[in-house]
Amino acid sequence: MKKRHPIETLIEQGEHQQLDFKFEVSDSKKIARTLSAFANTDGGRLLIGVKDNGAISGIRSEEEYYMIEAASKMYTRPEVPFTATKWDINGKIVLEVYIAPGMDKPYCALDKEDKYKAYIRVADENILANEVLVLSWKKKSKPEGTLLKIGKPVEKLFAWLDKHDSISIAQFCRVAHVNYYTAKNILSDLMAMGTLHYIVVEKHIVYQKQTVR
């Protein structure tokens, strides 16, 4: 029995949060958003030369690698590092591009209006990171750390989370009677401190208490 190639085994998983298939790369700006999303979330792999249904079509030239390189060097800020490996699978070449979880978030890529935005990976999609996430990443990287005053809004936030699974920024504004700016700063402080984490529900970012492992 012929041994299966590791890439074939990977393809069988289907596309998910850490795996994306591309038949080809024809737009470096567009693929830069995927690099941003992987780097800002849990990392992941791009398999180029693979159709959406998992069929291996192979890449036609070295151009695919250069498109990825251009996406990283020209259209992500800071530059998203990657490694690339070419695999020969039954005479067809698949380019595997690996992006590690980033250490210098937020990684941004150009959107359709040519503005730099940060993306996150949710299931098999790239979605825009909101202001709370971007602010929390910036605060987390500050050498002086984050100092949060425990006042009434924070007490109301945790009272809510004691009874509910998660909270949105709009709910927090209503529950704590604070404006968007204040809510954004409190949530991003708590995210930077590791007290809260985010999940995505129906493409909306909400916040939960971080469970201690």
TrEMBL record:
Pfam families reported for this sequence: SLFN_AlbA_2
All copies of the Schlafen AlbA-2 domain together span 15-128
Q: Which residues form a coiled coil?
A: none
What is the name of this protein? DNA-binding domain-containing protein
Keywords from the UniProt entry: DNA-binding
Query: What are the recorded GO MF terms, alphabetically?
Result: DNA binding
Alphabetical list of PANTHER family matching this protein:
GLPR-RELATED TRANSCRIPTIONAL REPRESSOR, SCHLAFEN ALBA-2 DOMAIN-CONTAINING PROTEIN
At the highest ranks, the source species' classification is: Bacteria, Pseudomonadati, Bacteroidota, Bacteroidia, Bacteroidales
